[in-house]
Amino acid sequence: MTVRLGSIQNIAAKKNYDTSYLKPMDKPVSEYFNQYVFGPEAKKKYLAIDVYEKFENCIENDIALDSDTADMIAIGLKNWAIDHGVTHYTHWFQPLTGKTSEKHDTFFKFDKHWQAIEMLSGLELIVQEPDGSSFPSGGLRSTHNARSYTIWDPKSPIFIRRGKYGKTLCVPAILISYSGESLDMKAPLLKSMSLLNKSAVGVCKYFDENINKVIPTLGWEQEYFVVDESLFNARPDLILCGRTLYGNASARGQQLEDHYFASIPERVYNFIIDFEQEALRLGIPIKTRHNEVAPNQFECAPHFEYANIAADHNLLLMDKIDRVAKRHGLRVLMHEKPFNGLNGSGKHNNWSMSTNTGVNLLEPGDNPETNLMFMTFFINSIYAVYKHADLLRASIANAGNEHRLGANEAPPAIISVFTGDNVQKVLDAFKNGVEYVDDSIQVNSGLEHLLVPFQKLHTTDRNRTSPFPFTGNKFEFRAVGSSVNVSNPMTILNIIAADTLSEFKNKVDSLISKGKEKETAIKNTLIEMLKECEPIIFNGDNYSEEWVQEAERRGLPNLKTTPIALNEMIKEHNIEFLAKTGVFSRDEIISRYNVAILEYIHKLEIEAVLVDEIAQTMIIPSVVSYQNELIKNVQGLKEIGLIAEAEAHKNQLIKISNHLEGMIKHLNELEIERKAASQKSVDGEKAEHFSTKVKPLFDIIRSHADKLELMVDDKYWQLPKYRELLFLH
Ligand code: ADP
Ligand code: MG
Q1: Which of 214, 313, 350 to mutate to test the pocket of ligand 1 (most atoms within 8 A of CB)?
Q2: Residues, CB within 5 angstroms of ligand 2 (ion)
Q3: Which of 36, 271, 471, 702 could form a disulfide with 328 if both were Cys (CB 3.0 to 4.6 A apart)?
Q4: Beta bridge partner(s), residue 620
């Protein structure tokens, strides 16, 4: 029996699920939310009041802690952790791999009398020294000058990671090199947030003197697939690449449109409840769960938070989901496109800006047309996307997203903004200096007894095809891939918004200094900006071929592949722009490009090797076994005189042999092109070769294999089929 058929039996027998962690969700969430976080309650209990206040002051007002206070915090923190049964601590940080990193140390030490005690000093809390050369640095670090530091970031809550047999205190940190360059995703995000704060506060002062802080908010929506573990284990491509390199479409896929928001299957429901409880205890304010469009695809979303905390929480959740799934005999696929021909997975990044006065700067209110503060931030955001669509596109470029963008309900590689009809009317009236007439449709259910709580339709409709739609009171950056650390796209978004806002302020101030009245200066500047950035606004169907042509006419970049998109980062005007903002140095930008392009090369190289290996060791042997059976059959038919029947079976044999031949021929070509790619000395060229010469061969080889899957006896086929991966749980 093939591993595949054994796996199917396993599922039916429901083997190997460890649900001992799973507790009924029967308590109000507020009772256990933040249980494993050194949050306000724990801080108050374990820290002296003056220490607590200095800690809060550091977080809220960006004032560094002094070393005595750090020592006191370390003592309180250690006591809190030990009361929770924690034995180890670690800095928890976000290197350029896109994942998180940690190195555990125990609290246990010897005092001067060689007595065992538990200790954590302020210095240990603040700084650790991992070997920087083992993390991707894009050329910034080499093995012979490897020193790097992780530095505690007090703005992110400290938390406890629970395992079945041990607990670890996780201290969020940034990673920098010996000479101070950042080697992680967190430091640039924090820098971009303070840049945006400065620019946005400057602009807010036109409207409200009390605003002295603006923080970008982020609410991500995480899409993922769930697959049974035994089927997963029988697919080397899922294990090593996170996506299927082979697999014919299942007769039933998503065409019945019956999965989105459908009732969640029991086994997956248990798994979701399990990880949600863990997430809530870790202070991740998870709120929404639902089935997504493709079979076995799901989504979860939290309440939005400050962008840096939201980024931490997303990474933590991805890690949790992965671990908890294993307890349920399931595997989670976070890849952007695990299955051909079905929806991919994104991570929609809902982004806005919030003030210390509690205002959401992208909230239009009931009368957006007279809400000049909203119009200012709204138009500035659109303008920023227009000016820097290339950088925004580069910020979401990776090997996985390349398969997703522009296919099956995913936004295309062309960046544009959706405003929605109503808001567009407000913008048009604003631009033309005419009065806005509100002709929005009244919501009418057609049923007298229903209470409809709002009179007007939402200020925007939805547009699932747009990479950057305005969705009522925030922008939703939908083109971000499901597997990534959101910090990079958020950093770029914050930077471009900050830069646009400060440019806007310069223009307005200059008009005011020339005697223009403030409101007129603001309006005139906004109208000018709106006219300039209008080409980026597109409210139609982003999937259509007409849009591709229209976008080209409008001069919008269409950066289709990852190497092409990443190359934008290192164009001189972009390096100059990014370096000017101070968030990145020139070297840091180039190093990040190097890391991203290398990751692309490595991923494609792994896929190329695996396409070949799976073909040679799993597909071709199955086909040959079946071929031999057919050959015997044809010979047998001939022997007993059934010549016409033998001919029909021979034709089947020929079809199979042709596909086999096609496969082998292109596998040989694949090997040649893969080697040719590897021999290129410049990474950009290597990536280009993989993208244009190697990758297209995957599709050709696959198309032969997928046809063979439909012809070969099921009992020989070794790779679990799409219908099994998508419908068995
Ligand atoms: P949908 O799938 O319909 O777009 P969801 O409810 O799944 O909506 O997700 C909406 C996301 O938008 C949530 O994560 C929510 O917290 C987030 N969000 C709402 N308001 C803001 C805001 N002001 N800033 C950032 N994110 C926001
Ligand atoms: Mg959603």
Answers
A1: 350
A2: 221
A3: 271
A4: none
